[in-house]
Amino acid sequence: MTTHETDDLGPVLELARQGDAEAFGQLADRHRVRLFRHCYRMLGSGHEAEEAVQDTLLRAWQRLDTYDGRGSFPGWMYRIATNMCIDRLRGRQRRLHPISMGPPATSGSMPGPAESGIDWVEPVADHTIGLRGDPEHTALARERVSLAFVAALQQLSARQRAALLLHDVLDFSHDEVAEVLDTSSSAVNSLLYRAREIVSGSPMVANADPDDPTVKSLLAKYLRAWELADISEFLATVSEDVRLSMPPLTTWYRGSHDVAAFVEAAIFAPSRPHGVTMVMGRANGQPALATYAPGPDGLLNVDGIQVLDISEDGSSIEAITSFRSPQLAVSCGFASTLAAPEQNS
Prior knowledge:
This protein is an alpha+beta fold. It has 13 helices and 7 strands. It folds into 2 domains: 11-94 and 120-200, Butyryl-CoA Dehydrogenase, subunit A, domain 3 (Up-down Bundle), CATH 1.20.140.160; 213-339, Roll (Nuclear Transport Factor 2, Chain: A), CATH 3.10.450. Helices cover 45% and strands 14% of the residues. Strands 1, 2, 3, 4, 5, 6 and 7 form a 7-stranded mixed β-sheet that branches. Helix 7 (158-169) packs antiparallel against helix 8 and helix 7 (158-169) packs across helix 9. The longest helix has 23 residues, at 21-43.
């Protein structure tokens, strides 16, 4: 493993190996975010990733005496985490994104009811994957945790997923990947070839920096379009080939005409004259907006979260994934309720 993710653990590691639980807690805290990021990419779900991290840390504590120091300690932890994730994925259906399930809806059609029994790829808060205040907050880091990339990974088998992440993201050598997966170096080559082929064929966006002034201006226009229910302003912010998906609905739309027709008929028209209340934030290193609706108690209750893919030059929104889940919005750091704005009489 030649990644920069190596630590001078020295005395803390030695104390942990002697059975010092407090010292191991320090090791766990140091590596928790890295492990969560890896498990999230493997599993496509924040809560499943957290469970996998807990299992990984428990296994590492129980087997700490087997770490012989020949490889990096982070690499040893990644090996455990990878196999924990592969075990979790065994015999389970893949997490899906509506775009992976079939062609877009025909022009003018409305979505059918939500389908039960489908596990969806889910967004996570930036701080859980180490993007807030992290020196790795770069274009490459954002791309490697973007919702589109995580969704593309879920199209792979568990072993393809592991090979791609270990080799192409974490810089494990072919031989190291082969050791983790208990296979040959030539088999790793085959796994990598197929994994890269599938991922490269998935809808991907090279997301712009959310802090770029051009992107901030675009997002301000997009927010205003929803707050005013202004379909012309909405159209001015999206690309011609924009995609809109809405888990847990399997229906999705492609192209500014069809997307705008749905947004106008299903969302903007019913919300006038007040529009849709939204709050700006981040998820997966991307712009994210929580949507709020009036509740019976006079407060505004969160009812979902949108994650946006922005073109590399920051000029347009390429994809909108709108999760109709209050729980996901809250898990990504948004407030569950807001005070309703006073209406002018």
